[in-house]
Design a protein that fits this description.
- By secondary structure, the chain is α/β, with parallel strands linked by helices.
- It has one domain (12-481): Alpha-Beta Barrel (TIM Barrel).
- Helix content is 38%, strand content 12%.
- The protein has helices spanning 19-22, 44-50, 72-85, 97-100, 111-126, 142-148, 155-171, 191-195, 205-230, 252-274, 280-287, 296-304, 352-366, 392-411, 459-470, and strands spanning 12-16, 90-94, 130-136, 177-181, 235-241, 245-247, 309-313, 318-320, 370-374, 415-421, 441-443, 455-457.
- An eight-stranded parallel barrel has the order 1-2-3-4-5-7-9-10, surrounded by four helices. Strands 6-8 form a two-stranded parallel ribbon.
- Strand 9 (370-374), helix 14 (392-411) and strand 10 form a beta-alpha-beta unit.
- Mean pLDDT is 94; it is low at 480-486.
- It holds the Pfam family Glyco_hydro_1.
Length: 486
């Protein structure tokens, strides 16, 4: 099977980024503060994510990696040129909400912020790179948290729609692919990062999380309706963080645990793609004393405005047994060790076949086009004496995952494209580190913001370009990935 072309001509290949992790310029040209701008690096970060209430102002004694990140705000032409040199056909970016509406509830948008993204899209068009735009990617304006309680307040739906309409009118003729919320289901695991929720004093956190989720789901459906009205032919996708659960054993209780754990994520896909709340949530809500504010209009807009495609991130699979499963929001990613698969430097399971499994699971369930918009390996890269970064481990990781993707396409999965996470090194959303590197391009910056910011190509840079140019023919295919699902 060597030298087979594995991906169709129209398949979109590229990378994915998030404004709050690479832009920098956190207070430039009228931008307001977003929640990520008060997320410090270092040991305080975990405490902040669990107890954000005491961290909502910027402190002189803490380092905030988003403030400068890798300064794409000043380097966007150089960086996009490097992506073009890899022959990207697509780049997933996000718009930073607080750059357009500094407080989130402003009456008029910030023109300087709009002009910045005009310039970014200009550069992408210059190199024939398709922009894929996430409307909200972990950067709820901080003022919306302080004034309204963020997404626990129904008012945020209208603020979000004003923001989305501004983007559709400004960039709609230039952007075909949109996503409403990044990894919307992560609000169950990281309520502050994903939804700007400050739950320190909440007696029923599950209630708050799923009420906020509902308002986000309604906002997504209304934005989908608005996009279709304003920009005929444009497509709206939802975006899930998808890590499928395997049962630890064939014990029936373990199988049931895996089913229930998968539903923590699939719930969000079900509402986005099917247009209604799945029946299995009724018991969950009853047992967790959740009573949602859902109007008849909410139900109608959800039903009539399902997404056009399902996008998702895939980094790993999880394994669960009956003893360790947890449907509780704060423990959504409970997992036990899987002895059959290796781990990354950060302890994440490396499971290429799990990506094929995920693609088939999602396509079987929804029968809508899929889009892999994040996949990659965070690792510590070493710069050799001659300046080379020999990241064969990243090449091997991506090679095996892309082979699994090709097999899923043969299985019959309709797939729009594949964008690796972090094609250029950027700040980690979870840890705030720079040393957890994903890129094909090395950025000289350390965990404390020191460095020259020089961009350097890693060994994987030319490798990925070769994969794109050959549409997968240069991939090394492994036997475990080429077996039929029949």
């Amino acid at each position: 099977m060597a030298n087979d072309v594995l991906f169709p001509e129209q398949f979109l290949f590229g990378g994915a980024l998030a404004g709050n992790q690479y832009e920098g310029g956190y207070d430039r040209d009228g931008k307001g503060l977003s929640i990520v701008d008060v997320e410090p690096a270092g040991p305080e970060r975990n405490d902040m994510l669990q107890h954000p209430k005491k961290y909502l102002t910027i402190r002189d004694d803490l380092y905030y990696p988003s403030h400068k990140a890798i300064e794409f705000y000043d380097h966007y032409k150089e960086d996009i040129k490097l992506f073009a040199d890899m022959h990207f056909s697509a780049l997933r970016i996000s718009i930073n909400w607080a750059r357009i509406f500094p407080n989130g509830d402003d009456k008029e948008p910030n023109e300087a912020g709009l002009q910045f993204y005009d310039q970014v899209i200009d550069e992408l068009e210059k190199y024939h790179i398709e922009p894929i735009v996430t409307i909200s990617h972990y950067e709820t304006p901080l003022a919306l948290v302080e004034r309204y309680g963020s997404w626990t307040n129904r008012k945020l739906i209208d603020f979000y729609l004003t923001y989305a309409e501004t983007l559709f009118r400004r960039y709609g003729s230039r952007v075909k692919y949109w996503m409403s919320f990044n990894e919307i289901n992560c609000i169950t695991e990281n309520p502050f990062i994903a939804g700007g929720l400050v739950l320190d004093d909440e007696s029923n956190k599950v209630q708050a999380i799923y009420q906020a989720s509902h308002y986000e789901l309604v906002a997504s459906a209304k934005a989908t309706k608005l996009l279709h009205e304003l920009v005929p032919g444009a497509l709206m996708g939802c975006m899930l963080a998808f890590s499928p659960y395997y049962a630890k054993t064939c014990k029936p209780e373990d199988q049931m645990a895996a089913l229930q754990q998968n539903r923590v994520t699939l719930f969000y896909g079900d509402v986005h793609a099917r247009g209604n709340y799945p029946s299995y949530m009724n018991r969950f809500f009853k047992e967790h004393h959740v009573i949602l504010d859902i109007t008849d209009d909410d139900r109608k807009v959800l039903k009539e405005n399902t997404v056009d495609y399902i996008s998702f991130s895939y980094y790993m699979s999880h394994t669960v047994d009956a003893e360790h499963k947890s449907e509780l929001a704060a423990q959504a990613y409970a997992s036990v060790e899987n002895p059959y698969i290796p781990k990354s430097d950060w302890g994440w399971p490396i499971d290429p076949l799990g990506l094929r499994y995920s693609l088939n699971m999602l396509y079987d369930r929804y029968q809508k086009p899929l889009f892999i918009v994040e996949n990659g390996l965070g690792a510590r890269d070493a710069v050799e004496e001659d300046g080379m970064i020999n990241d064969d481990y990243r090449i091997n990781y991506l090679n095996d995952h892309l082979v699994a993707v090709a097999e899923a396409i043969k299985d019959g999965v309709a797939l729009l494209g594949y964008t690796t996470w972090g094609p250029i090194d950027l700040v980690s959303a979870g840890t705030g580190e720079m040393e957890k590197r994903y890129g094909f391009i090395y950025v000289d910056r350390d965990n404390r913001g020191n460095g020259t910011l020089k961009r350097s190509k890693k060994k994987s840079f030319d490798w990925y370009r070769g994969v794109i140019d050959s549409r997968g023919a240069t991939l090394k295919q492994e036997e475990f990935n080429t077996t039929s699902v029949q």
